[in-house]
Design brief:
Layout lengths: L3 E4 L5 H12 L3 E4 L4 H8 L7 E4 L7 H14 L4 E4 L17 H26 L6 E5 L12 H20 L4 E6 L6 H6 L15 H10 L4 E4 H7 L1
Parallel strand pairs: 1-2, 1-4, 2-3, 4-5, 5-6, 6-7
Helix pairs in contact: 3-4, 4-5, 7-8
Length: 232
Protein backbone atom coordinates (compact mmCIF):
# COMPACT_ATOMS: atom_id res chain seq x y z
CA UNK A 1 0.00 0.00 0.00
CA UNK A 2 1.26 3.46 -0.87
CA UNK A 3 1.86 5.49 2.28
CA UNK A 4 3.87 8.38 0.81
CA UNK A 5 3.54 9.59 -2.77
CA UNK A 6 4.77 12.52 -4.83
CA UNK A 7 2.51 13.69 -7.67
CA UNK A 8 3.72 16.48 -9.94
CA UNK A 9 1.30 18.84 -11.65
CA UNK A 10 -1.41 18.24 -9.06
CA UNK A 11 -3.23 21.57 -9.13
CA UNK A 12 -5.80 20.39 -11.68
CA UNK A 13 -6.77 17.61 -14.04
CA UNK A 14 -5.54 14.08 -13.60
CA UNK A 15 -2.89 15.05 -11.04
CA UNK A 16 -5.52 16.54 -8.73
CA UNK A 17 -7.91 13.62 -9.23
CA UNK A 18 -5.14 11.12 -8.46
CA UNK A 19 -4.11 13.07 -5.37
CA UNK A 20 -7.70 12.92 -4.12
CA UNK A 21 -7.77 9.18 -4.71
CA UNK A 22 -4.52 8.59 -2.83
CA UNK A 23 -5.55 10.82 0.09
CA UNK A 24 -8.81 8.89 0.33
CA UNK A 25 -6.70 5.76 0.74
CA UNK A 26 -4.78 7.31 3.63
CA UNK A 27 -1.59 8.29 1.85
CA UNK A 28 0.53 11.34 2.49
CA UNK A 29 0.83 13.03 -0.91
CA UNK A 30 3.49 15.61 -1.72
CA UNK A 31 2.27 17.72 -4.62
CA UNK A 32 3.63 20.47 -6.81
CA UNK A 33 2.29 23.00 -9.29
CA UNK A 34 3.52 26.25 -10.77
CA UNK A 35 0.90 28.50 -9.18
CA UNK A 36 0.96 28.39 -5.39
CA UNK A 37 -2.53 29.82 -4.93
CA UNK A 38 -4.14 27.40 -7.37
CA UNK A 39 -2.26 24.42 -5.93
CA UNK A 40 -3.15 25.21 -2.33
CA UNK A 41 -6.78 26.00 -3.12
CA UNK A 42 -7.23 22.80 -5.10
CA UNK A 43 -5.64 20.43 -2.60
CA UNK A 44 -6.59 21.91 0.77
CA UNK A 45 -9.33 19.96 2.48
CA UNK A 46 -9.40 16.93 0.20
CA UNK A 47 -11.53 14.33 2.02
CA UNK A 48 -9.87 11.25 3.44
CA UNK A 49 -7.56 10.09 6.22
CA UNK A 50 -4.41 11.10 4.32
CA UNK A 51 -2.82 14.51 4.03
CA UNK A 52 -1.38 16.77 1.36
CA UNK A 53 1.97 18.57 1.47
CA UNK A 54 2.01 21.34 -1.15
CA UNK A 55 5.38 22.44 -2.58
CA UNK A 56 4.66 24.98 -5.33
CA UNK A 57 7.18 25.61 -8.05
CA UNK A 58 8.33 24.87 -11.59
CA UNK A 59 9.67 21.36 -12.11
CA UNK A 60 12.26 22.63 -14.59
CA UNK A 61 13.86 24.64 -11.76
CA UNK A 62 16.61 22.71 -9.98
CA UNK A 63 15.96 24.62 -6.76
CA UNK A 64 12.33 23.51 -6.81
CA UNK A 65 13.34 19.90 -7.41
CA UNK A 66 15.58 20.23 -4.38
CA UNK A 67 12.61 21.47 -2.35
CA UNK A 68 10.64 18.41 -3.40
CA UNK A 69 13.50 16.18 -2.30
CA UNK A 70 13.59 17.98 1.04
CA UNK A 71 9.84 17.37 1.48
CA UNK A 72 10.35 13.67 0.80
CA UNK A 73 13.23 13.61 3.29
CA UNK A 74 10.97 15.17 5.95
CA UNK A 75 8.28 12.61 5.19
CA UNK A 76 10.84 9.88 5.78
CA UNK A 77 9.85 7.68 2.84
CA UNK A 78 8.67 7.57 -0.75
CA UNK A 79 6.60 4.71 -2.15
CA UNK A 80 5.21 6.28 -5.32
CA UNK A 81 6.50 8.91 -7.75
CA UNK A 82 4.06 10.08 -10.43
CA UNK A 83 5.36 12.27 -13.24
CA UNK A 84 2.09 13.93 -14.20
CA UNK A 85 3.26 17.49 -14.91
CA UNK A 86 3.77 18.21 -18.57
CA UNK A 87 3.54 20.76 -21.35
CA UNK A 88 1.60 20.62 -24.61
CA UNK A 89 3.50 23.23 -26.58
CA UNK A 90 2.03 25.91 -28.87
CA UNK A 91 -1.73 26.04 -29.36
CA UNK A 92 -3.11 25.46 -31.94
CA UNK A 93 -0.74 22.52 -32.43
CA UNK A 94 1.68 23.28 -35.29
CA UNK A 95 2.98 20.94 -37.95
CA UNK A 96 6.62 19.94 -37.45
CA UNK A 97 7.64 22.32 -40.25
CA UNK A 98 6.18 25.17 -38.20
CA UNK A 99 7.32 24.08 -34.72
CA UNK A 100 9.78 26.72 -33.41
CA UNK A 101 13.00 25.20 -32.07
CA UNK A 102 12.64 27.05 -28.77
CA UNK A 103 9.14 25.63 -28.32
CA UNK A 104 10.42 22.08 -28.79
CA UNK A 105 13.31 22.78 -26.42
CA UNK A 106 10.83 23.90 -23.77
CA UNK A 107 8.74 20.76 -24.34
CA UNK A 108 11.81 18.58 -23.95
CA UNK A 109 12.90 20.34 -20.76
CA UNK A 110 9.47 19.99 -19.15
CA UNK A 111 8.36 16.57 -20.38
CA UNK A 112 11.66 14.67 -20.43
CA UNK A 113 14.65 16.35 -18.78
CA UNK A 114 12.90 17.54 -15.61
CA UNK A 115 11.21 14.19 -14.82
CA UNK A 116 14.54 12.41 -15.28
CA UNK A 117 16.33 14.90 -13.03
CA UNK A 118 13.69 14.52 -10.31
CA UNK A 119 13.79 10.73 -10.55
CA UNK A 120 17.56 10.75 -10.07
CA UNK A 121 17.17 12.85 -6.92
CA UNK A 122 14.53 10.56 -5.44
CA UNK A 123 15.89 7.13 -6.36
CA UNK A 124 17.67 6.69 -3.00
CA UNK A 125 14.29 7.00 -1.23
CA UNK A 126 12.44 4.78 -3.71
CA UNK A 127 15.05 2.04 -3.42
CA UNK A 128 14.40 1.70 0.30
CA UNK A 129 10.64 1.12 -0.14
CA UNK A 130 9.67 -2.55 -0.59
CA UNK A 131 6.79 -1.66 -2.93
CA UNK A 132 8.03 1.46 -4.69
CA UNK A 133 6.68 2.46 -8.08
CA UNK A 134 7.42 5.20 -10.61
CA UNK A 135 4.67 6.25 -13.02
CA UNK A 136 5.16 8.44 -16.09
CA UNK A 137 2.10 9.85 -17.86
CA UNK A 138 2.15 8.72 -21.46
CA UNK A 139 -0.11 9.40 -24.43
CA UNK A 140 -1.28 7.65 -27.56
CA UNK A 141 0.62 10.44 -29.34
CA UNK A 142 3.78 8.64 -28.19
CA UNK A 143 2.97 5.64 -30.40
CA UNK A 144 0.65 7.01 -33.11
CA UNK A 145 1.29 9.63 -35.81
CA UNK A 146 -1.19 12.51 -35.48
CA UNK A 147 -0.79 15.69 -37.48
CA UNK A 148 0.29 18.53 -35.22
CA UNK A 149 1.29 16.26 -32.34
CA UNK A 150 4.89 15.67 -33.43
CA UNK A 151 6.63 17.77 -30.80
CA UNK A 152 4.51 16.63 -27.86
CA UNK A 153 4.43 13.03 -29.08
CA UNK A 154 8.20 12.90 -29.49
CA UNK A 155 8.72 13.96 -25.88
CA UNK A 156 6.20 11.41 -24.64
CA UNK A 157 7.89 8.69 -26.70
CA UNK A 158 11.19 9.66 -25.10
CA UNK A 159 9.63 9.55 -21.65
CA UNK A 160 8.22 6.09 -22.43
CA UNK A 161 11.73 4.93 -23.31
CA UNK A 162 13.19 6.40 -20.12
CA UNK A 163 10.55 4.52 -18.12
CA UNK A 164 11.30 1.28 -19.97
CA UNK A 165 15.04 1.56 -19.37
CA UNK A 166 14.58 2.57 -15.73
CA UNK A 167 12.47 -0.54 -15.21
CA UNK A 168 15.35 -2.67 -16.50
CA UNK A 169 18.04 -0.82 -14.55
CA UNK A 170 16.07 -0.75 -11.28
CA UNK A 171 14.56 -4.26 -10.97
CA UNK A 172 13.54 -3.56 -7.39
CA UNK A 173 11.07 -0.90 -8.58
CA UNK A 174 7.93 -1.08 -10.65
CA UNK A 175 8.12 1.50 -13.45
CA UNK A 176 4.98 2.13 -15.48
CA UNK A 177 4.30 4.34 -18.49
CA UNK A 178 0.57 4.97 -18.05
CA UNK A 179 -1.55 6.14 -20.98
CA UNK A 180 -4.76 7.65 -19.53
CA UNK A 181 -6.39 8.26 -22.91
CA UNK A 182 -8.35 11.40 -23.77
CA UNK A 183 -9.61 13.30 -20.74
CA UNK A 184 -11.60 16.46 -20.06
CA UNK A 185 -8.65 18.64 -19.04
CA UNK A 186 -7.35 22.14 -19.67
CA UNK A 187 -4.48 20.70 -21.69
CA UNK A 188 -6.82 18.72 -23.93
CA UNK A 189 -8.90 21.85 -24.46
CA UNK A 190 -5.77 23.75 -25.51
CA UNK A 191 -5.03 21.00 -28.01
CA UNK A 192 -8.43 21.58 -29.60
CA UNK A 193 -9.10 25.32 -29.22
CA UNK A 194 -12.67 26.31 -29.90
CA UNK A 195 -13.93 22.72 -29.75
CA UNK A 196 -16.18 21.19 -27.09
CA UNK A 197 -14.21 18.53 -25.18
CA UNK A 198 -16.88 17.97 -22.54
CA UNK A 199 -17.61 14.53 -24.02
CA UNK A 200 -14.19 13.28 -22.88
CA UNK A 201 -14.02 11.31 -19.62
CA UNK A 202 -13.46 13.27 -16.43
CA UNK A 203 -10.01 12.56 -14.96
CA UNK A 204 -11.59 11.10 -11.81
CA UNK A 205 -13.03 8.26 -13.90
CA UNK A 206 -9.52 7.29 -15.05
CA UNK A 207 -7.92 7.23 -11.59
CA UNK A 208 -9.31 3.75 -10.74
CA UNK A 209 -7.32 2.35 -13.66
CA UNK A 210 -4.02 3.59 -12.26
CA UNK A 211 -4.91 2.53 -8.73
CA UNK A 212 -5.72 -0.95 -10.04
CA UNK A 213 -2.34 -1.03 -11.78
CA UNK A 214 -0.56 -0.07 -8.57
CA UNK A 215 -2.52 -2.65 -6.58
CA UNK A 216 -1.85 -5.52 -8.98
CA UNK A 217 1.85 -4.61 -9.44
CA UNK A 218 2.54 -6.32 -12.78
CA UNK A 219 6.01 -6.19 -14.26
CA UNK A 220 7.30 -2.81 -15.36
CA UNK A 221 5.97 -1.69 -18.74
CA UNK A 222 3.50 0.47 -20.66
CA UNK A 223 -0.19 0.23 -19.79
CA UNK A 224 -3.36 1.81 -21.20
CA UNK A 225 -6.15 2.98 -18.89
CA UNK A 226 -8.76 1.59 -21.28
CA UNK A 227 -7.35 -1.93 -20.90
CA UNK A 228 -7.08 -1.64 -17.13
CA UNK A 229 -10.63 -0.33 -16.78
CA UNK A 230 -11.93 -3.27 -18.80
CA UNK A 231 -10.17 -5.61 -16.39
CA UNK A 232 -11.61 -3.76 -13.39
Amino acid sequence: MTTTALVTGAARGFGLALTAGLVARGATVIVDGRDATTLTSATTGLPGPGRVVAVPGDLTDATHRGALRAAVHRAGALDLLVHNAGALGPSPLPRLADLPPHAFANLWETNVAAPLALTRLLLPFLRTSPDAAVVTLSSDAAVEAYEGWGGYGATKAALDQLAAVLGVEEPGLRVYAFDPGDMRTDMHQRAFPGEDVSDRPHPSTVVPALLALLDSRPSSGRHRAADLLEAV
